[in-house]
């Protein structure tokens, strides 16, 4: 499984890098973003609201098309489970294409990436003298679709649907370009 994920990641990097060869990296813009995420599906059964932050780089290709790369960290609050402390987090690494609508402040987003997911459980004392912990990490392929709006110069507001295997999320991202 790990070899297949590594191959997919390498192939995705090459596909994203081909159009990037024509990009002007002198016009790149760095940005930071705050993220509020709502888990869906099986993930939403035990995880609640997620809060996180990320950094990224935008490189324009044409006035309508830009490419972005970003990495984020999202921590999710979890349901209360008797005698257990549960935590969940995601680290999405995403390559995005941004299509700016003509004569509008709106834009569309689409992208591919990988997400490092981690879930940890620290058990209280289940039986006299027995306590413990367990954790699971996985690397999953992800797809992102969304739209955004330029609130003012240097600030954006985005809505995204992130498909990440069993950890799908809806998120609102507030970005600040510096």
Q: How much β-strand is present in the residues?
A: over 45%
Whole-number mean pLDDT: 87
Span from first to last CA? Answer: 39 Å
Helix/strand class: mainly beta
Question: In one word, what is the shape?
Answer: elongated
User: Could you describe the largest sheet, including whether it forms a barrel?
Assistant: 8 strands, antiparallel, barrel
Q: What helical percentage do the residues reach?
A: 10-25%
Which terms summarize this structure?
single chain, 178 residues, mainly beta, eight-stranded antiparallel barrel, 1 helix, 11% helix
What does this structure look like?
With 178 residues, this protein is mainly beta. It contains 1 helix and 8 strands; from the N terminus they run αββββββββ. It has one helix spanning 2-20; strands spanning 29-39, 47-60, 65-78, 84-100, 106-127, 130-152, 155-163, 169-177. Strands 1-2-3-4-5-6-7-8 form an 8-stranded antiparallel β-barrel. A hairpin with a 4-residue loop joins β2 (47-60) and β3 (65-78). It is elongated, with a radius of gyration of 19 Å.
């Amino acid at each position: 499984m790990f070899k297949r994920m590594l191959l997919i990641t390498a192939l995705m990097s090459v596909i994203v890098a081909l159009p990037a060869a024509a990009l002007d990296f002198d016009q790149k813009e760095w940005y930071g973003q705050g993220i509020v995420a709502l888990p869906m599906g099986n993930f939403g059964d035990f995880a609640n609201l997620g809060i996180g932050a990320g950094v990224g780089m935008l490189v324009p290709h044409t006035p309508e098309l830009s490419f972005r790369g970003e990495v984020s960290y999202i921590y999710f609050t979890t349901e209360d489970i008797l005698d257990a402390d549960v935590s969940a987090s995601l680290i999405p690494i995403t390559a995005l294409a941004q299509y700016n609508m003509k004569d509008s402040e709106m834009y569309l987003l689409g992208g591919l990436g990988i997400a490092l997911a981690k879930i940890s459980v620290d058990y209280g004392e289940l039986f006299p003298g027995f306590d413990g912990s367990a954790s699971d990490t996985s690397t999953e392929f992800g797809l992102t679709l969304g739209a955004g709006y330029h609130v003012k110069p240097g600030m954006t507001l985005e809505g995204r649907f992130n498909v990440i295997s069993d950890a799908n999320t809806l998120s609102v991202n507030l970005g600040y370009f510096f």
